[in-house]
Amino acid sequence: MRILVVEDEKKLADALVQIFGSNRMIADASYNGIDGLDNALSGIYDVIVLDIMLPGMNGIEVLGKLRKEGIKTPVILLTAKDEVSDKVKGLDSGADDYLTKPFATEELLARVRALNRRSASELICDDTLSFSDLSLDLSAYTLSCGNNMIKLGLKEFSIMEMLLRNGNKVLTKETLLVRIWGYESDAEYNNVEVYISFLRKKLGYIRSKVSIKTQRGVGYSLEAK
Ligand code: CA
């Protein structure tokens, strides 16, 4: 799961990125409304945590523009105490939830998970993604084939999830790089190749007949032998 935090209190933003990170989510931070909107428009996020009072452009405007562009990523608004009219405005402009500052991080985590489940459930009926003899458990982070099962690391899991959602279609290295490592990172195609090779080993280990096919110069797709 990839999360965008838009919050100008740098300490809070960075703390949230860390907390998401230690809860198996990948998070990026933007410190003002304009950067936040730019990042959110990429459409690569599963949930956006959006502060209302922001320099550049406030959270309600960011949200309005996002929805106008057709980006339906679930948004949790962060509001200061007693900004009741902001809450109403926020929900009117298409926020999915809001949280009043100060809040307990456990509560934010629970709400982020709930929103992600809600949007994910539109794509899948249960907590697994399947392709041929392969299934990926989205809550336990395990990949299995028959009775063989192996645990995946966060990046491996995220890559496998994208491959499974894409099925036979080719997933480009660029898409993987941006979605898994983010725009700001120094990661290169090499990093993608390394994780693909880890996944190939794991596919062999659980004896799946599914393999990750390299489309030279383009990217990867799944293939069942
Ligand atoms: Ca603020």
Strand content range? 15-25%
Q: Determine the number of helices (DSSP H or I, runs of at least 4 residues).
A: 8
Helix content: 40-55%
- The H-level CATH homologous superfamily of the largest domain, spelled out, is Response regulator
In angstroms, what is the radius of gyration?
Answer: 19 Å
Write down the overall geometry. Answer: elongated
Helix/strand/pairing category: alpha/beta
The CATH architecture designation of the largest domain is 3-Layer(aba) Sandwich
Instruction: Determine and state the CATH class of the largest domain.
Output: Alpha Beta
Outline the biggest β-sheet.
5 strands, parallel
Mean pLDDT: 88
Alpha-carbon distance between the two ends: 29 Å
Domain count: the total is 2
What compounds sit in this structure?
Answer: calcium ion
Strand sequence of the main sheet, in spatial order?
2-1-3-4-5
The CATH topology annotation of the largest domain reads as Rossmann fold
- Total number of beta strands: 12
The arrangement of helices and strands along the chain is: EHEHEHEHEHEEEEHEHHEE
Oligomeric description of these chains: single chain
